[in-house]
Amino acid sequence: MSASSGAVQGSPHGIGFLVRHVHKAFARVLAERLGPYGVTSAQWTVLRSLWQEDCCSQVDLAANIRVEKASLTQILSSLERQGLIVRERSDTDRRRWLVSLTDQGRALEPLLLPFAGEIDRLASTGFSKKELAELKSLLTRALHHLES
Q1: Which of 2, 57, 67, 101 is least surrounded by CB atoms within 10 angstroms?
Q2: CATH of the domain spanning 29-120, picked from 3.40.190.10, 2.10.260.10, 1.10.10.10, 3.40.50.10810
Q3: In what order do the strands lie in the sheet with 85-89?
């Protein structure tokens, strides 16, 4: 966009600027809530995916949470050290690593999963249902445009 349109790249009026800062605020609030449990936001993202689909390959897990497989390795190592997940080689393909929750990792689900809804509700305080639907629709469209 041009400077004359009032939305200079990198300005506080740009979509990217606002989305990035909203995301940082979400992450900060989530980190505050996770702190007492010794879980980071990145670890929570992995756990959340595993709560939805346990025992998946490391490649599939990386795709599900939209990160590079290499950047996932350190997070998985820390979750494994905490006793929240286990990694095992696949019986059918020895090159694949399967990631599964432990009982301890599964037990965190009812404690930590509600944070997502709580933070969404906090962020959307004062929005009408119509406004929320429109916001989600617009962000989905923007994401689609950027990913295609």
Answers
A1: 2
A2: 1.10.10.10
A3: 56-57, 97-101, 85-89
The whole-angstrom separation of Cα 42 and Cα 99 is 16
Q: How far is C-alpha 7 from the chain's CA centre?
A: 28
Q: 62-67, long-range: CB within 8 Å, 24+ apart, which pairs? A: none
Q: Which residue has the tokens 């300005």?
A: 11
Report the C-alpha gap between 126 and 50 in whole angstroms: 32
Residues 130, 27: Cα–Cα separation, whole Å = 25
Q: How far apart are CA 11 and CA 93, in angstroms?
A: 49
Alpha helices of 56-147 — where are they, by DSSP H? 58-65, 69-81, 103-107, 109-112, 114-123, 129-147
Domain locations along the chain: 29-120
- Contacts of 20 by beta carbon, 8 Å cutoff, 6+ apart: none
Identify the DSSP state of 7: -
pLDDT averaged over consecutive 10-residue blocks of the chain (148 residues)?
48 86 95 96 96 94 92 95 94 87 98 96 96 96 94
